[in-house]
Structure formats: C-alpha cells, structure tokens
C-alpha cells in the first residue's frame, strides 16, 4: 500500500530535510510547524535554516507542488514527528513537544495510518506516545493493545544525520527501524525506502530509542577523552594535537579532537537521557558530560592568562586591550549556535573583559540577542588587524585559511589546534 500523503510534524533541521527528501521523490508532503514564520518561508520555496543543498531541494519541491507547509495537521497516511526533545530541570528529558505533536495529530488520525517518532527520545517514549494517542482516540486500536492487528502502526526511527552533511547522509545512512510490532516495522521500512539508499535495519522500539542515545553517548565519551588529554597535556607542556596524531598511528587507536567543549542539540543533550533513567549505572557517561561541560571554563581561564601576559608585556591598561573571538557556532561551517560552548565562552568574556570584545562568525549576519551591545560582530580582517589577543573557538574554513604570517608573535588561545 503506498502513501498518498506524508506529513512531517516539525520542520526544523531534521523535519525539513526529511520532508524535502520525500517530496523530491514525487511524494505529496504536508509539513506542519507551529512556527508561522518557518511555514511562510517554506511556502515561498525558501528555507529558514542553513544546511548545504537543502535550499535547492526545498525550492524544487515547493515549486513542483510536492511540498507545502501549514500550522495545523491534516489527514495523512504517514506522520513523522521531528519536534525538539531538549532537557529540563536537572537534565530530565522534556517530552512536552512530542506530547503536543501527538495531541495535534490525534484528531486527524485515520485507520491504517503510520506514526513514526524521529525525535531523539528516552527509552519507553514510543510506548508513551502510543498511550497519548490511544487516550484521545478510543475509536481506533493501537499496537500496545491490539498487536499486529492495530488500526494505527507506530515506530521509533531515529535520525543520525550529521549537520552540514544532512542531504547526503539522509539518503545514504542505514536507518534503525524500531516498530512496536513487526507489521509497524515493515510499514516504516516501506516508507523510508522511498528515498533511502542505505539499509533499513529492523529492531523493536525500545532498542531503537537506546541505539540513538548510545551513538551520541559513544561520541561524547570519546570527545571527553580527548578533552581530558588536552588538560593533561597543558600541564605537562605537550602539544595535544601532535600527541593525538602520533597515538592515532597505532592501528587500533583513533582518538577524537579536543575543543572548547561539546555543543549542539544532540551530543551535549542525549547522554543525559541515559543518565536520567539509569543514574546508578551510567557513571562513565555522566563523567564524560561533566568533563565536556567543564571545558569552556578551562578555556576562559586560558584567555584570562593570555590577557594577563599581554598586559604585562605591553604595558597597556585592561580597557585598552581588544580581544577577538573567532567562531560562535557549535562546530565548523554551520550557523547553528544552539548549546554552543563558544557562545557561553564569549558571553562570559563579555562580562569579564574591560576592553573591546570582537566576535567573528562568518555564518551569521546579526549577533544573537544575548550578545547584542556586549560585543561587536566583525570580519576576519578587521579582527586580525585590531585585536591584541586572538581566541580561536571554531575551526571554520575561513579561519583555517588565515595566512600564518598574520599570526606570528600574537597572543593566541587556539582551542582547535588549527593555528599551531
Ligand atoms: N539537528 C540534528 O542534527 C539532529 C540529528 C538527529 C536527531 N535530532 C533530533 O531531532 C529532533 C528535532 O531536532 P531539530 O534539530 O530538527 O529541531 P529544530 O528545533 O530545528 O526543529 C523542530 C521544529 O519543530 C517545531 N515544533 C515544535 N513543536 C511543534 C509542534 N507541537 N508541532 C509542530 N511543530 C513543532 C519547531 O517550531 C521547530 O521548527 C530532536 O529530537 C533532535 O534531538 C536532531
Ligand atoms: C554519533 C554522532 O556522530 N552523532 C552526530 C551528532 O552530530 P553533531 O553535529 O552534534 O556532532 P559533532 O560533529 O560530533 O559535534 C558535536 C560537538 O562536539 C565537538 N567535537 C566533535 C568532534 C571532536 O573530535 N571534537 C569535538 O570537540 C564539536 O565541535 C561540537 O561542539 O549528533 C547528531 C544529532 O543526534 C547526529 O545525528 C550525528 O550523527
């Protein structure tokens, strides 16, 4: 049975590329988002986020009549929910957006529909979502009670695309399919095979939920190892990037890179979902979070030390020193500032520094509100010519391309090891 209408709920960094991928295969896609501005932008064939190649695919999909956006759900054959799942309070998963999305689609659910949760979620979330839907539609049967014969099929299918490479990875990555029943998995696999070149790997919903959290926790733990090495190396007077390069010559060693901390919507968040559900067992995962979360504070201390050195050498007053921070995004060559360690470092420096503070971020046009009036957004050349101290926070291509001659005899704090 084919899918006449596919509806994607939540048109952000995950939902919009997914909606566009289906639409590019001549599937009728109705995207739903509570953000009216996002809906209007998409309906003009434009995009409200930065992701390479997404703009052309969305433009073609909208102009071809395959993709449209709206603020309220419609009757569809398949729903994919890709709304935020942040944490709240003491790092507890916040499922309020998923609940709101489920409540929004419940009235328009029809017999035979497939509901897929794509949002990164704690173990048990899919069963919980099925419960929310069932509570609102007692005229339909759901997999929890009716098993294979349910009116509605439900699956958890996590997304694992890398921001910056979403359009390629969306198609090529293998996809974990966690149906609440084998029929649910088969139906979800059928849906993704519309655009997927990778394999659909079938499991149950709870394993699929844990699989997503495991992938990001694995990366977080490995980055924490690199970050811990950077602290040890600083104490021992060893260049950590050279050390890692050498150690990685071992055939079974592959250490990741230290940085100013771990940011983004995922790796700094998802491991907490495991910790919240398993506080006794998840000791290493929790420690990795603590190591990575403490790295911005360590970077700030390095900047303060560089300022002290510069003051002592130059004889200038603190008010006369200009500090330039290169990069606000959470990783290279994207515009996403969410959970960015660079943002928290620059915010704190803005409070502490008495002289001028410059921020260079080639991927944005205006400073986020939090920094407005507290620092000046400028370009690479201006920052290089005016700043006394250079702080490299993100390895954007523009920063890697800076002529080494312009960095000689400067006060530099390089958190990414690209100006060595
Ligand atoms: N961004 C990534 O790299 C990535 C990768 C894998 C998984 N994920 C997961 O995917 C999910 C979505 O992440 P994202 O980065 O796309 O978030 P996002 O914030 O970019 O997009 C979410 C969208 O959902 C909309 N929304 C919120 N509540 C809604 C509702 N009730 N109905 C309709 N729309 C609603 C928001 O307005 C927003 O446009 C999260 O669970 C995230 O952890 C993200
Ligand atoms: C397992 C995995 O790969 N998951 C990916 C991840 O995507 P991401 O974009 O969030 O991931 P990263 O690129 O790792 O960046 C995170 C932060 O870690 C810093 N970092 C990175 C490498 C390093 O060696 N040293 C560092 O310091 C970097 O600067 C940044 O702040 O989560 C998505 C959502 O779930 C997944 O879909 C996607 O597959």
From TrEMBL:
<feature type="binding site" description="in chain A">
    <location>
        <position position="263"/>
    </location>
    <ligand>
        <name>UDP-N-acetyl-alpha-D-mannosaminouronate</name>
    </ligand>
</feature>
<dbReference type="Pfam" id="PF00984">
    <property type="entry name" value="UDPG_MGDP_dh"/>
</dbReference>
<feature type="binding site" description="in chain B">
    <location>
        <position position="252"/>
    </location>
    <ligand>
        <name>UDP-N-acetyl-alpha-D-mannosaminouronate</name>
    </ligand>
</feature>
<feature type="binding site" description="in chain A">
    <location>
        <position position="126"/>
    </location>
    <ligand>
        <name>NAD(+)</name>
    </ligand>
</feature>
<feature type="binding site" description="in chain A">
    <location>
        <position position="85"/>
    </location>
    <ligand>
        <name>NAD(+)</name>
    </ligand>
</feature>
<feature type="active site" description="Proton donor/acceptor">
    <location>
        <position position="212"/>
    </location>
</feature>
<feature type="binding site" description="in chain A">
    <location>
        <position position="212"/>
    </location>
    <ligand>
        <name>UDP-N-acetyl-alpha-D-mannosaminouronate</name>
    </ligand>
</feature>
<feature type="binding site" description="in chain A">
    <location>
        <position position="161"/>
    </location>
    <ligand>
        <name>UDP-N-acetyl-alpha-D-mannosaminouronate</name>
    </ligand>
</feature>
<comment type="pathway">
    <text>Bacterial outer membrane biogenesis; enterobacterial common antigen biosynthesis.</text>
</comment>
<dbReference type="InterPro" id="IPR001732">
    <property type="entry name" value="UDP-Glc/GDP-Man_DH_N"/>
</dbReference>
<dbReference type="GO" id="GO:0016628">
    <property type="term" value="F:oxidoreductase activity, acting on the CH-CH group of donors, NAD or NADP as acceptor"/>
</dbReference>
<feature type="binding site" description="in chain A">
    <location>
        <position position="33"/>
    </location>
    <ligand>
        <name>NAD(+)</name>
    </ligand>
</feature>
<protein>
    <recommendedName>
        <fullName>UDP-N-acetyl-D-mannosamine dehydrogenase</fullName>
        <ecNumber>1.1.1.336</ecNumber>
    </recommendedName>
</protein>
<dbReference type="InterPro" id="IPR017476">
    <property type="entry name" value="UDP-Glc/GDP-Man"/>
</dbReference>
<comment type="similarity">
    <text>Belongs to the UDP-glucose/GDP-mannose dehydrogenase family. WecC subfamily.</text>
</comment>
<feature type="binding site" description="in chain A">
    <location>
        <position position="216"/>
    </location>
    <ligand>
        <name>UDP-N-acetyl-alpha-D-mannosaminouronate</name>
    </ligand>
</feature>
<dbReference type="InterPro" id="IPR014027">
    <property type="entry name" value="UDP-Glc/GDP-Man_DH_C"/>
</dbReference>
<feature type="domain" description="UDP-glucose/GDP-mannose dehydrogenase C-terminal">
    <location>
        <begin position="324"/>
        <end position="420"/>
    </location>
</feature>
<dbReference type="InterPro" id="IPR036291">
    <property type="entry name" value="NAD(P)-bd_dom_sf"/>
</dbReference>
<dbReference type="InterPro" id="IPR014026">
    <property type="entry name" value="UDP-Glc/GDP-Man_DH_dimer"/>
</dbReference>
<dbReference type="InterPro" id="IPR032891">
    <property type="entry name" value="WecC"/>
</dbReference>
<feature type="binding site" description="in chain B">
    <location>
        <position position="250"/>
    </location>
    <ligand>
        <name>UDP-N-acetyl-alpha-D-mannosaminouronate</name>
    </ligand>
</feature>
<dbReference type="InterPro" id="IPR008927">
    <property type="entry name" value="6-PGluconate_DH-like_C_sf"/>
</dbReference>
<feature type="binding site" description="in chain B">
    <location>
        <position position="338"/>
    </location>
    <ligand>
        <name>NAD(+)</name>
    </ligand>
</feature>
<feature type="binding site" description="in chain A">
    <location>
        <position position="13"/>
    </location>
    <ligand>
        <name>NAD(+)</name>
    </ligand>
</feature>
<dbReference type="Pfam" id="PF03720">
    <property type="entry name" value="UDPG_MGDP_dh_C"/>
</dbReference>
<keyword id="KW-0520">NAD</keyword>
<dbReference type="Pfam" id="PF03721">
    <property type="entry name" value="UDPG_MGDP_dh_N"/>
</dbReference>
<keyword id="KW-0560">Oxidoreductase</keyword>
<feature type="binding site" description="in chain A">
    <location>
        <position position="331"/>
    </location>
    <ligand>
        <name>UDP-N-acetyl-alpha-D-mannosaminouronate</name>
    </ligand>
</feature>
<comment type="subunit">
    <text>Homodimer.</text>
</comment>
<feature type="binding site" description="in chain A">
    <location>
        <position position="330"/>
    </location>
    <ligand>
        <name>UDP-N-acetyl-alpha-D-mannosaminouronate</name>
    </ligand>
</feature>
<feature type="binding site" description="in chain A">
    <location>
        <position position="14"/>
    </location>
    <ligand>
        <name>NAD(+)</name>
    </ligand>
</feature>
<dbReference type="GO" id="GO:0009246">
    <property type="term" value="P:enterobacterial common antigen biosynthetic process"/>
</dbReference>
<feature type="binding site" description="in chain A">
    <location>
        <position position="219"/>
    </location>
    <ligand>
        <name>UDP-N-acetyl-alpha-D-mannosaminouronate</name>
    </ligand>
</feature>
<dbReference type="InterPro" id="IPR036220">
    <property type="entry name" value="UDP-Glc/GDP-Man_DH_C_sf"/>
</dbReference>
<dbReference type="InterPro" id="IPR028359">
    <property type="entry name" value="UDP_ManNAc/GlcNAc_DH"/>
</dbReference>
<feature type="binding site" description="in chain A">
    <location>
        <position position="160"/>
    </location>
    <ligand>
        <name>UDP-N-acetyl-alpha-D-mannosaminouronate</name>
    </ligand>
</feature>
<dbReference type="GO" id="GO:0089714">
    <property type="term" value="F:UDP-N-acetyl-D-mannosamine dehydrogenase activity"/>
</dbReference>
<feature type="binding site" description="in chain A">
    <location>
        <position position="416"/>
    </location>
    <ligand>
        <name>UDP-N-acetyl-alpha-D-mannosaminouronate</name>
    </ligand>
</feature>
<feature type="active site" description="Nucleophile">
    <location>
        <position position="266"/>
    </location>
</feature>
<dbReference type="GO" id="GO:0051287">
    <property type="term" value="F:NAD binding"/>
</dbReference>
